[in-house]
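Cont'd.
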Amino acid sequence: GAVVSQHPSRVICKSGTSVKIECRSLDFQATTMFWYRQFPKQSLMLMATSNEGSKATYEQGVEKDKFLINHASLTLSTLTVTSAHPEDSSFYICSARDVLAGARDEQFFGPGTRLTVL
Amino acid sequence: GNSVTQMEGPVTLSEEAFLTINCTYTATGYPSLFWYVQYPGEGLQLLLKATKADDKGSNKGFEATYRKETTSFHLEKGSVQVSDSAVYFCALSDHSGAGGTSYGKLTFGQGTILTVHP
């Protein structure tokens, strides 16, 4: 149980285009999903907290107009990188929290999406 | 703000050696503490956790004790295996946030690469 999937696993796009990444909780409902960015050999940096049915909360320094987050259902959140540039190339990881889980602070992570912007 | 500091890697050990990966934290209040593991090509998986002072988390032979007095959560294993080769992340969970909207935000350490040779 507690499986989180991401799609696509890898994407290569041209500079200036937009890319959408999906995060799904496959066997549980998630009122809250988190989006992280991981640079090579570095830690995960939280980008935003996504709550179902409401606007995402972005961390300081993260451009909300560039990284659009939608959490329309209890099992799906999407991250759209708009007008992507080479500096947006990174590994994007989502996680989800199980609404019904007794341990409210446990997150389940997706396998990540490798974005390369040419 | 919250922060997590891990010992720098990479760590290279022979099979059956003793492992320690140091982790210290700074936080307001009383966070939960976690160790996550990321195997090559996979997403983060929760390895163990502790939710209050003096709690010991354990799983797959790994252990870590929540030491409030030293603000530490060091990871240990008595005898490592080749299959333990992975990146290990120490993290803490923020319990603040009105309405629970930011409850469970994770702050990660920089990660420690462990390589175990036969």
